[in-house]
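Troubleshooting entry. Yesterday's outputs looked truncated, so today I'm pasting the complete records for two proteins to confirm everything comes through intact. If either block looks cut off, that's the bug. Protein one:
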Amino acid sequence: MKIQSKPGLMAGLSAASLLALAACGGGGTTTEAPAGAPTEPSAASVPSPTVTPNADPIATTHPNSIQPETTLSISAEGSVNREPDIAFLNAGVQTQGETAQAAMSANATAMNGVFDALAAANVDRTDMQTSNFSLQPQYDYSNRQSGQPPRLTGYQASNQLTVRVRDLDTLGETMDALVSAGGNTFSGLRFALEDDRAAKNAARDIAMKEAIARAELYAAASGYEVARVVTISESGGFSPQPMAMMAESRSMDRATPVATGEVGYSVTVNVTFELRKPAE
C-alpha cells in the first residue's frame, strides 16, 4: 500500500518542528535555522584576547575606577637650626607649715621675694605667669603596719612660675637671683625663637625642594617626567637640639653657667605629583 503525502503537509510544519526532527536525526537530514535565529559561534571562530603591555588606560568618569593619571607620592623633611634668642624658665617656691595658713604665709613671703628679684633682673611682669599652685596636707605613714591611721604632720604649699627671659646673657644671673630670693624648685628650661616664622618657612622651602628633587629622580628612572603637583600637606614642629655652646654671663665667677645651644625647626611635606610620558 502506498502512502501519499497530502499537499501542503510539509508546508504546515513549523520551524520548531523541523528543528526537533533534525535534533532527533529524523530522516538523516540536516535542517538550517531560519533566517534571523540566533546562532552559537564555534570555538574556532572566537578570537583570543590580546594583552598590550603599558597600554593607556581607558578614560572613565566612574568614581571607583582607576584614573588614567600616573601619580607619585613623596614625603620629605626640611630642618633648620637657629641660635635661640629667648628662654622659658619654670621655677617656684615650695614651703612647709604646721597649718595651712602657716604654709601659705611662708610661701607668699618667698614668692614676693622672687618677684622682686626677677624685676631687679629686668624681667617684666608681663613675662611672669603662674603655671601651678597647690596646697597639700602632709601625713606620716610610719605607723601603718601597726594598724594606726596616718598622722597629719603639716601642710605644703607650692607656687610655680613660668618666666620668659629675653636677655640670655643674664640668664645665669637671673636663675641665681631667683634662688637667693627664696625660689627652691626648678622644673624646666626651654630655649626658643621669639619669632619663629622665618625659621619654619626656611624648613618648608628645604622640604619642598627635596620632594621635587626626589620626584624628578623617580620619574626619570621610570621613563616619565613630572607634570604637576596634585596635593600638598605638611606636618612638623619645634624640636630642641643638643646644647652646643655656653652663654656668656656678666659675672662668670658666680653666675650659673647655661648652655643655650641651638633650637631646630623641622617640617615634613607630603606631596603627590602627576607623571606623564615625555613628548617625543
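Protein two, checking that the full record survives here as well:
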Amino acid sequence: MDYSDTADRISQKVKAKGHEADPAKIEGKLRRLVEEFGVPPAEAERTVMSEIAREFSLNGLGTAAGEEKSLNSLLPGEWATVEAKVVSLTSAPSPAIAQSGILADTTGAIRFVVWTKANAPILEDGKWYRFESAVVDEYRGSVNLKIHSGTVIREISRDTVLSPRVTPIADLVPGIGSVKAKVIQEWDVTHDRMLQSGLLADETGTMKFVIWKEEGREQLVPGKVYSLYYAVVDEYSGRYSLNLNSATVVPEEGDIPVSSGDTRFTGALVHIAPGSGLIKRCPVEGCNRVLSRQNYCPVHEIQPGFNYDLRIKGWLDDGKVTREVLIQREVTEQLTGMSIEQARELAENNPLGMDEVFLRVRDRILGRYLSCTGREIDFRMLVNSCDLLPFNAEETASLLNRAGGSS
C-alpha cells in the first residue's frame, strides 16, 4: 500500500469539505492499522475515512470508493466507483504500468492504467469488474481511469451486451471512438515499431491511422471497409489520428461513400529535396522503407532484391505561403514525362546513376508553376493530381520583388 498517496487523497477529500486533515497523521494511522494490526489496506482506508467523518461531523464524505458513476459522466480530478467491461488490453508502455487498455459500459468507453505498485489482480479481456476508489484524470485531452494501491477491484457477473456507437470521422474527439471507414491510402512506415499507417475515410471526412507492431496485430487492406470499435483518438498539434492497437477490427462487405478530403494549392516549385527522383524501397512485405545507396534498410538490413520507385519531394510557394509536397510515382511520371522504366534504364546505364535521374527531374520542373490537389497530413500535402500551369510573367515578377524586398 502506498501510504503517502492514500493519505494525500484522504486529506484532499476532507479539504474539499472545508476542513484540514494532516496527511502525516493520516499516514501514521494507516500504517499502524495495516502493519501492526494486520488490517487489509482497503479496510484501513475506510476506517480512517469514517473516523475523520465523525471527527468533523461530515455528511457525505463517504468511503474511499467515491460516487458510483457511468463512464461517460467521469470528470478529471475526481475519485469514482465504476462497473465496466475490459474490451481491450494493450501493451504497457512502461515498467511502472502493469496493465493498460480500454474499459466500456453502456454509456461509452475510457482508457485505463493499472500501476505496477498497486499490486492489483490481473484483469482479463472480456470480463466485467467493479472498481472502487479509482482516480479519474486527463491525458492528451481525454479522460482516463487510474488504478492505484487504494483501488478495490472485484470481478462481477454481467450479461449486458455492449453496442459501441459508431461516430462519423468528422465528429471524433480525443478519447475512444468507433468508426466505419474505408482504407483509402497506405503510407510508408516511418518508425521501426510501426506496422502500418495510412488514411481512413467515410463520407464525412478523413483521418490518419496507425498500427504499432504487436503480437496478433495485422495490417488493413487498402480499399477495404472496416468497422473499428474502441480505437484511441489521439491529438497532436491540433491534428487527430486513430491508434488501432486497442481496436476490435471487423472487415465489412461492400463499399461506402467517402469524402475525398482534398485541398488544392497552386504555386511555383521552388525546391526539390534530396530523396527525389529514382529511389529504392525495401521489398519485405509490410516495410516499403526507402533504402540507402548501399541498399540498406534500417529494419531488414541489406536488401539486394529492392524495388524501384519514383517520386518528388519539394516545396511549392504561392508568394505568401510555402507548402511541402510529396508527389508519388504516377503524378511524377506525368509531370516529368519520364516513366519509371526510363528512369531505371537511365540510372543503370549512366555514370552518375540515380543522381542523373534526380538532375533531369530537377531540370524539367524546378521553377514551374503547379496546381496540385491532395490531402494535408502532418503538415505535408500528399499529392494525388497535379497540373503544369503556363508561365505567368506577373506572378514571377511578384515573387522576385518579394525576394528582393527581403534581402
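Both blocks look complete. Sanity check on protein two: The radius of gyration is 29 Å.
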